[in-house]
Design goal:
By secondary structure, the chain is mainly beta. Helix content is 6%, strand content 49%.
Length: 338
Amino acid sequence: MRSNSLWRSAELYVLITLIGAHVAQPQHAFNLKDPLPKWVYRPFKNTEGVSSNCVAFSPDGKWVVSGHTHTPVHSLRMHLLHASNGIPQRVSPDEFTFAPVSATFSPDSKLLLMIFYNRVDVYEIPSLKYLRSLKVKQEIEVVQCSPDGQSCIVAGNGFAPQAWNYLTGERLFTLPTQGKGYCWAQFAPDGKRIWAEENDKILYECDAKTGAMLRTLTFPNAHFTKFALTPDGKSCVLATFGGSLELRELTAGKLLRRFGTVLSKFPFFLTALALSPNGKRIVSGNMLGAIAVWDLQSGSQLSLFTPHDNDVNGVAVSPDSKYYASIGDSKVCLWNLP
């Protein structure tokens, strides 16, 4: 997690303001005016002490993977679900020291890469057979496979992003960023470049084959917590500390559109961000369990509701852009994408 003082100050402010009402909330029941989920998956009958940490779709659309932690019994498991109905195909054994943090699939949907603190474990799909680990010394937050399926980029807290051959376990190169604070990284859709975010206001463009630095974009007056590239690779969506979403082009960083505050009453807490593969929708979630869906072209908000009791720890859009999954508290939900 970020150690940024602004983030921590914002978190403390909201917690002090809302602690009475928020702690007193019962187990969430869906409001009749809210969208209805296509399915809901709860891995444990006893939800006390359960945290649900990450969610991802396989590129072929067949699978949804989720990571869950059940503290009372020290259960740290991956759950491979059928995307069509949320029924588990396989659940991993309790053999992990750390909770699952984030996950991604290889482009052919045959391999799963799952983060456990300072390592990325590689598994076969659908057997969840363990193959190998990619290890670094610091905390990893994100992993993404290259479009050609030959490598992955790993980024996190306190180290410069690294490229690995996840098929062999060989580290290929380290990006020439400062490697200070929190870093995020993503392959461009064409697979030729890697974009890396650092210190909440810098974007680096690097060559995906060699790691060489190509250029730097700096946003001195903006502090953003997450970013996502649009499918055409020409722009990106930034989630700011102020709670808004910004669409910026990647030539000079020009602001194209601002999407307002995700929850105007409670800014700062955007915890999840995803773009639809067709480039038409943005899905975001925050620490109060709220999910918002935006139209990328017009900037209009299409949906805003609160299906989770606390942090939305992840959102993911299906490959056909018809559905999105959200994960938080003790459940995974699948929704129609408006």
